[in-house]
Amino acid sequence: MNIGVLALQGSVAEHLKLIKSVNKKINAVSVKTIDELASVDALIIPGGESTTLRRLLDEFDLFTPIRERVVAGMPIWGTCAGLILLANRIEGETPYFKLLDVDVKRNAYGRQIDSFVTEGDFAGMYINMVFIRAPKITRVGEDVEVLAECDGEPVAVCQNNVLATAFHPEMTRDNRVHKYFIGMIDEK
Ligand code: GLN
To answer: Are 56 and 8 in contact (CB under 8 A)?
Structure first.
């Protein structure tokens, strides 16, 4: 099984490392090209800077191929900037993939200095949640399941084959959210 990490910008190495730690039979693949995308069973869009990521996705002609794979059922997981790119609406900006029925507000938890770590329940698992200039999910559509909350607000959501977290599981040594995501492939 091949799990891809979009490798244009952001926390790529951290995701690759945690995927490798889940199971020796799982390959962690950097995805920069259409051919690399075709070789993966699931894709992670890492945290980083969504403005930069969307520009690079356009430049590398990856918008349509990624979107088509997800519409066809490939699991995708966006962390932080990745969540922003998946959302149907971004406050004050044009949305990008529109694959997840939520609204988001960028940098709504404050500036870099306001980044923080907290603990909470993610789908029945108690995990550390690292927030780095994270977006807030300000609306959740009817078909979207909330998997984690922070101070009563959704911070991890899932809609069919689309998973998104406002926080960064790749910034911890805990691979359970990666395991959860890989489990979404088996369900398909
Ligand atoms: N602040 C970034 C953005 O708006 C996201 C931060 C992150 O991915 N850690 O794109």
So the answer is: yes
